[in-house]
Amino acid sequence: MKRRLGFILLALFVIAGGVALPHLLPAPPLPRDYGAAVHFRDGTLMRLYATHTGRRRYYLPLERIDPLLVKATLVCEDKRFYHHPGVDPLSIIRAAWQNLKAGHVVSGGSTITLQLVRLLRPGPRTFWRKALEAVWALGMEARLSKRQILEYYFNLAPYGGNLEGVGAASLAYFGKLPTSLAPDEIAFLISLPQAPIRARTHDKRARNRVIERMRTAGLITGSEALKARQAPIPRHLHPFPFKAPHAADYLHLEYPGMSHIQTTLSPEIQALAEEVIRRHAGRILNLGASAAAVVIMSNRDRRVRALVGSLDYWNREFQGQVRGFEAVRSTGSTLKPFLYALALQRGTITPVTRLEDRPRAFGAFRPVDFSPRFMGMVPAKTALARSLNLPFINLLREIRLKAFLKFMEMAGFHWSKNPGLTAVTGGMETSLLSLTNFYVTLAREGRHGPPRILTSDPLREKPLLNPGAAYLTLQALLCASHGMPGPGFDLAWKTGTSFGQRDAWALGVSPQYTVGVWVGNFNGQGVYGLTGATAALPITFDLMKALGSRPAKFHCPSDSLTWIHVCPDSGLPVSAYCPRSALSPFPKGAPLPHRCSWHRPFIMERGRGFRACPWKTYPPDSLERRVLLIVPGHAPPPFSPACSVEDPSGEIRILSPAAGTLYLLSPRGAFSRGLPLKGVTDLPNGRLYWFVNGKLVAKSQSGAVIFVTPPLGRVDIRVMDEEGRWNQVTSWVDYVASGRTGKTCGQGKSSILNSRPKTRALYCDEAF
Length: 768
Known about the structure:
Blueprint: H1 2-24, E1 36-39, E2 45-49, E3 56-57, H2 67-77, H3 89-102, H4 112-120, H5 127-143, H6 146-156, E4 163-164, H7 166-174, H8 183-191, H9 198-201, H10 204-216, H11 222-230, H12 245-254, E5 260-262, H13 267-287, E6 291-298, E7 304-308, E8 328-330, H14 336-345, E9 354-357, E10 376-379, H15 380-385, H16 389-399, H17 401-410, E11 429-431, H18 432-443, E12 447-448, E13 462-463, H19 467-478, E14 492-497, E15 503-509, E16 513-520, H20 532-547, E17 561-566, E18 582-587, E19 599-605, E20 623-629, E21 653-656, E22 662-665, E23 675-680, E24 687-692, E25 695-701, E26 705-708, E27 713-721, E28 726-735, E29 762-764
Parallel strand pairs: 1-5, 3-4, 22-28, 22-29
Antiparallel strand pairs: 1-2, 6-7, 6-16, 8-11, 9-10, 12-13, 14-15, 15-16, 17-18, 19-20, 21-23, 23-26, 24-25, 24-27, 27-28
Helix pairs in contact: 2-8, 4-5, 4-6, 8-10, 10-11, 13-20, 14-16, 14-19, 16-17
């Protein structure tokens, strides 16, 4: 029993050793560098890059290699491939006998595994070297499957010159991949690893021997063999594909180590973009520029469809190999649409809000428009369509620069230094690829994410803009096309020109595509007269017309828009004083802008154009209430000439409140902030101290207005200056629920209306 158990343990030990021993044997390291093949989205080859050692390899998985090529290779090189552990003793014995009979070496008895070992670790053909190769072959077979070994062999076998692997060889000799080959082509490729030099001597004999072996093995028929022998030997190498060179270079550097780079670029759209650039090259050079770049993206899925980096990749004089679409440049006016959209979704403006376009200086910064003529008060959408500078600089100040920069940071933009108020006129920098992708966000209803340039890239987006704001921005940019021959579909576009006329931009958005174009010089030299409209926009138009668009109209997100009543004069939501209203679209969910303050009520001297003097006593029916249009930047009507505040005697005066006057204060009226206090003194420092019913409540400067919340009823107001001079008035104060009920002043319910003393005037939400 013990002896039987010992035999069993010994057998298990031998079996375990037999299984484990090959795994303990060394094996040559496998290659990691296969170069890189860059493909269009349909799989066609864009460009094949050599390895760091200069070898041309095109890695192919075994299933993409013609099955007949695989079978014929096994017939000719290693019939027992699937039945030996890497070294075939029968083949070695047979080769030794054949060599002994022939008196010279006619067969090596080498397996495909041994050939792969020699490819990975070349060395001298000595006995000891062959023994070491056999050990390596056993170790490799223990680590890799038969399928993996065969795949490595087909991708590393030499095929003449710097060609390695059947993929690169098939492209070079036949101009196609080895997915489907004719018998003569298969035979030619099989013959090359045996003696790659034959490829340069056009020797048919080696190829025909392979054809005969294929026929003998039953892989091809006799007629197929006859036809294959009559086929010519390839006499010239086909050039490797060299398409979209800037895009290929960009991707090769962006994704190092990838043997196959599957891009989203369309070969048809790429060829179209390159053709349009060629047609415009002469015109661009005549303008004084020497470079141009194009990016085309699909709005449906944010995939990049074309990338053009320069006018001519091979032009060294103009640095033609620079990838213009990734070069960082000044944005000019191209960021204005995003400030406009941000202002809409923050409730700062409506599309028709009037923005001021007048000369103005901001310290040393003195912006001007492209046109020397200023337009005064302009609707916001018109200011965007005409790319006016002053309205957007004022809008940036209102929104605040910090909020805009935070928004741009959320969109993935970064800057080395604070651009200040020039952020929307060229003070920021970005690349054409990033900017074009940003405009895609408008077409995708405000959802923003990175561009997709590999087919494996997922669509990663997050809400950045209100969908209604994005749609209204596109509608404003559509206005720029009015009066121009249209392409037959919606086309929103924006141009931009950087400081010193170094960069000319044009961005176009249709329902289907977004096109970005940049024109300039790679050395940064400015060109007099170079603008986005003259240099880049014609290219954008030609590309858009050639691309077309389906659908033809931008999708209107009706559930993201609402209609509001606005004052036609100011473009702001109507107030109680606006004489008429109009409807304007507005992003749903955005806060409403402040109500119109252009129409203001005043107490006027009847029959005259003067405002009533607050401290003057007027006879009955000598005052009237009028609502006047006061455009920002314009002064309200003047006070009566008799209402002078100058006092040669140096007395201190209270201009507001008026003595003996009842003030009705409401939460939403002109007095919503409280009772206005205003006084004047001739002292140099002009400091005033205000007392209400004997208590110090506030301090102010001479002529300034401050507001206080007084008690109900009679209020004694006293003011004092630095020299102790004082003045005092007594007024009456009451509070009403709303000062805008449609009733005339004084008709609201008041607890002291009937008990108050006779007053000279009644002020109810009126403006002086």
